[in-house]
Amino acid sequence: MVLPTFGISNSVLAAERIYASYSALELSISVSTLENYAKTGIINEDLAAYQQYLPLEQLQELRRILLNRVKVSPVIVSQLLYTPQGEFLLHRLAQVIKTSQAEPGFGALRSALISASGESGGLTLLNVLRKYPSSSIRLDVAETLEIATELEELVNQTHRAIAAVSEKSKIEAESISQPNLSQLPDLKVPGKFKSQKYILKFFDSTRNRLLLTDVYIPNVQNPAPVIVISHGLGLDSSNFQYLATHLASYGFAVVVPNHPGSDAKQLRSLLNGRAIEVAEPSEFQDRPMDITYILNQLQKGNQSDSRFKGRLNLQQVGVFGQSLGGYTALALAGAKINFEQLKQDCQPAALQKTWNMSLLLQCRALELSISKSGKYYNLRDERVKAAIAVNPITSSIFGKAGLSQIKTPVMIVSSSDDTVAPALSEQILPFSWLANSQKYLAMLVGGTHFSTIGNANPANQQVALPADMIGDASQARRYMNVLSLPFFQTYIAGKPQYTPYLNAAYTQSISSKSLGLSLVKSLNTTELVQLLDIKGAKLVKKKFPTP
Known about the structure:
By secondary structure, the protein is of the alpha/beta class. The longest helix has 34 residues, at 141-174. It is globular, with a radius of gyration of 25 Å. The chain has two domains: 3-134, no CATH class; 159-543, Alpha/Beta hydrolase fold, catalytic domain (Rossmann fold, 3-Layer(aba) Sandwich). It has helices at residues 31-40, 45-48, 56-67, 74-81, 84-94, 106-117, 125-131, 141-174, 241-248, 264-271, 283-304, 324-333, 339-345, 348-351, 357-362, 366-371, 399-403, 423-433, 467-470, 473-491, 504-510, 525-531, 534-543; strands at 17-22, 25-30, 97-98, 136-140, 195-204, 209-218, 224-230, 253-257, 312-322, 384-390, 410-415, 439-445, 516-520. The strands form two sheets. The protein has a nine-stranded mixed sheet with strand order 5-6-8-7-9-10-11-12-13, with helices on both faces. Helix 4 (74-81) runs antiparallel to helix 6 (106-117), helix 6 crosses helix 7 (125-131) and helix 11 packs across helix 12 (324-333). 42% of the residues lie in helices and 16% in strands.
């Protein structure tokens, strides 16, 4: 049902024959033969003629590649492929899957990828071949196997890293001496305070930004510490209403802005062809500035607006952000954009070989440096005393030098099955670069990039994602509530009685089978390398050398 949204018909012309090249050999195989082999493992006469040229282990590897599924929806595929960043991916895939034409058919390849991701079996190479809108296509088997090897190494390395984090969490849990966890108050239960929600309109004329902002004010006697929630790409303030109401029930004032250049409206413009970018490069600067501007306006309103007068403690501010909102939270906490790292990682040759899709977005920040040469981007807001970043992008936009500038307490939340901002490169290794001692890494084992996102207001017309793209969302949201609350109570509200919740023993006690949860307070790069096996250690040392 979602495919017509992208102009893709279910009745497109499908590929019937594949010309597969391997070394000096060219195989002519019908798609039905290849599909039958992939699904059954039976080599029929059509394929048996080539068996003497293509080793059995290579055939078996090809079968696995054909069926290997990528968890992604047509929405995400289209969102990526209709942007300049998506051209990098299409260029690389076009080296593997080609038409008989001299020039690669990016439109056909894009169409096949979107259609295949909407199939019941999901996005697989076999489904892409089946959905290719051309009667015949060419497949480079050697290049396909090489790419598969790269992806397998990346996946295995990530699995080793996640296992290493889980093992370190168990070690930390065993070393903790604390009271009976069952006697601690249940933080999943809402607090005692009622709150009033206001929808405010702020307009920053300097940047021409209309900032529609939800503000939750709890009914408390003393000025309430403030928590800001920054949504991710293609979302809006409604997606984190569940967290805002939970924090407000415990006495926090919660501020949830809509970032106009990277919200749900911008995504709809992209899908409808009215925009060519999911977000402009300026969003790396504008998002943190949105929050600083709103805090400034609330500071004025705290003196004169009867709704807020004296009810906000704007010197004790915490920030929670997801995805690009996670970047926003870290920038406000003191992480600096690392243009040198971006220049190094964003060379065309390097980009054409990357499978980290978030890097393609991060590299757009280089345009900030080009457009305003020599300008010092200091996005830190001194009022921000702690930050939580969920599925943030960090590896190149900040790098080690940028993240080491953070001096405030920080929690990074990662998801094992995140294909948008991969756990190892964007959260686990970056966590090891943080120099301050008050840091936490929480791992959602079985979580995806979208697990922590709450249900949007139906009036906002956000495109729904398939269930397997989200995972156990209800459990993920409970985790966000019970992790964010003690973190902000400890470091923003100054209530040390909540510290027993911020350790591996507590997260181990609430971890579920459907969505595992582990937490570590320390993990440096050397330690991570030692916890990985020899092959994984070499890969980490090569890309992320220790001092």
